[in-house]
Protein: HicB-like antitoxin of toxin-antitoxin system domain-containing protein
Organism: Ligilactobacillus pobuzihii
Amino acid sequence: MKNLLVYPVVLHPEKNDYFVEVPDIESGFTQGKDIKNAIEMASEMIGLMLEDKQEYPVASKIEDIPSQKGDIKTIVSVDIDEFRRNNPKTVRKNVSIPEYLVKMGKEKNINFSALLTAALKAKLEI
């Protein structure tokens, strides 16, 4: 099941690009060179701002978002689980394994981090 986050955004046209505001996200500002890019940037910014969160800000109703003449109000969605998979942060983890396996792995130039990551993905079926 997707963990879909949906937020209203306001695109403020400027001379050569769009200033993007996501009112429900603290410091939720970005920009894009055209409408498509502005929406993509808003989606990425939402993912970056919320990827470490377990609880998310409540989305406002789009009709309650203030805007000026010429502004474009729209909705942007982010599958936060997919965002996390596509933009993984690495975390250092100490593990204990038998010494003989460490020696054999080094002899075969095995990347232990890559191997553990692959094994965890297989075990978690992702």
